[in-house]
Amino acid sequence: MPHSLLDLIGNTPLVESKVLNTNTNVRLLFKLEGHNPGGSVKDRAAYNMIRSGLERGDFDKNSKLIEATSGNTGIALAMIAGIYGLNIELVMPEKATKERVQTMRAYGAKVTLTPDGIEGARDYAESKVKNEGCIMMNQFANNDNWKAHYKSTGPEIWKDTKGEITHFVSSMGTTGTIMGTSTYLKEQSSNVQIVGVQPTDGSRIPGIRKWPKEYLPKIFNASKVDKVLEVSETEARDMARRLAKEEGIFSGMSSGGAATAALRLAETLNSGTIVSIVCDRGDRYLSSGLFD
Which SUPFAM superfamilies match (predicted)? Predict the structure, then answer.
């Protein structure tokens, strides 16, 4: 039996596509990370970053923590920091949906909005570290991010597919999910193919980025990704709607992007078991017009 909310992080379900996947020789499984208590895959990384940092003595209840986020990591950090009684400021692009801002504030975090996208949010956070002594969680360079998925997401997928997984598909933002899961799955079988998902040039898909070189996450290791597929904003948006309407899976655009890539991949295979990450829930996108 769980003893705290934190015990509910992880062990999310896998569900098989019954409508969208039309290749009967391929199983397409969606891993529903919206079932985490904070509503996204980022609960895993946030918990591991905070717990490990506290154990090492990197910070304590007197520290001023700060993090730049596009949304889901911020919600997870706000929830977990609140449980531990930590002081945290979360910096987001001003175009973030109001549901995300309100959720972070509900958990007790200070939220600061910046005008220049996630890059601007990262620059702001780094300036406060330099000038005001704040401590940044730094999900883009913090090894506790990807290690969360090495310890949990990867083992869960291997166990729940009985080692039959042939392809893992994940959108790439901080790249923590794909780095940690790839590391674990490749240790079990080098034949498992790891497929990363990026937006096409000009597409804006919350949670998926094609980073400029100077902002490329330091935890990213290109050798751990076998193939990168690009999806457009329109494809990701339309697939998020189809996931909800046809499979009953309510999620955001980045999950729609991953599903688009997974379905494209399924069409090319003679057999296999694909696992695609559904990284969050759709309710935090209602004000964005995604489902209008």
Answer: Tryptophan synthase beta subunit-like PLP-dependent enzymes (SSF53686)
